[in-house]
Amino acid sequence: MELLGRAQHGLSRVGLTGLLAVAAVTAAHACEQPPAAVKNLDLSRYYSDRDGTIIDPESLERHRNAVGPLAAFLRHVTADADKSLRRTAPKAQAEAAACAVEWLAAWASEDAWLGNVTSKQAEYQRKWDLAGVALTYLKVRSFAKAEQRAVIEPWLERFADRARSFFDDPSRKRNNHWYWLGLGLAATALATDSPRRWAEARSIMTDASADIRADGALPAELDRKSRALQYHAFSLMPLIAMAELAYSKGEDWYALGDGALHRLAALCMRGLADPDVFDRLAMTRQDRPIRPGAGWLQLYASRFKDRIPAGMPDMAPGHRWLGGDVLVLADVLKLKK
């Protein structure tokens, strides 16, 4: 409870000159000005084949340029949120947290991400970014003033509605994209105290658990052929994070499907140690070097250290779509129990 106590103490010292004013807890402190909000998403697919296994370099470069402002915004707010919760001095905590909240409120007031969407790829981007935004806000929510919450939280609900509506079409693939939507809905549920969102997220996690075979494989991700291992790891990122959010509410989603998520994690870890495992499962040689995803292994190890085998590859401790550093998130979730 020490971190929460510090957060609450720091919050009382944060001064705000208006809803979107620059936060300051000392005369010398000021946040950077947030960039203009991005409302419309005009993105195109960057795979050259129907199965999503071959990346076209020129299309990928155009995509990266188009999402650059979104990625930069998320990296900035996640860095401020993590910086806040890593600090021990209440004033320093409040300074960094206030800037993260300030930027979120600025984009919320402009309905960022909620404009015109031109493609499936843009819809995919929106639900990935929803997860990152909601998890970041969850980290710093205790620092937000009532007037900021009144802007940010209804926006998150609209954001979640738009992300969810794309998947209302039953023809949409219920693969890793479905799982990332689940994380966005789960994080929004905790960030806005929404039982409806939580029920939606639980339903998606139930689907995911049913998707996982007895051997731990995800059939839809095996279809990615030479990238099957990569996409199994990519699927674990939202699924492990969702299970940890649920654990903070006293729900054990690891137990769903007779321990389905544990089976998936175990298979993926075997594949990371020996990619030949997935060469055989996907009946295609996996791309090397292997891309293990980010954050999920550290988050899983924070609860199940004894399940982690030796020889796991280095993995980034977080990602903007996971709200930044997952170990900071784990500390926040422990305080919610």
Describe the structure using short key phrases:
337 residues, Glycosyltransferase, two-stranded antiparallel sheet, 13 helices, 60% helix, globular, disordered N terminus
Can you tell me about this structure?
With 337 residues, the chain is an all-alpha fold. It has a single domain (2-336), classed as Chondroitin AC/alginate lyase (Glycosyltransferase). Helix content is 60%, strand content 1%. The chain has helices spanning 2-11, 57-86, 90-109, 120-140, 146-166, 176-192, 195-211, 219-222, 228-248, 256-273, 276-282, 296-301, 326-336, and strands at 318-319, 324-325. A two-stranded antiparallel ribbon has the order 1-2. β1 (318-319) and β2 (324-325) form a beta hairpin. Mean pLDDT is 90; it is low at 1-28.
Major sheet details: 2 strands, antiparallel
Number of domains: 1
CATH C-level label: Mainly Alpha
Helix content: 55-70%
How are the secondary structure elements laid out?
Elements: H1 2-11, H2 57-86, H3 90-109, H4 120-140, H5 146-166, H6 176-192, H7 195-211, H8 219-222, H9 228-248, H10 256-273, H11 276-282, H12 296-301, E1 318-319, E2 324-325, H13 326-336
Helix pairs in contact: 1-3, 2-3, 2-4, 3-4, 3-5, 4-5, 4-6, 5-6, 6-7, 6-9, 7-10, 9-10, 9-13
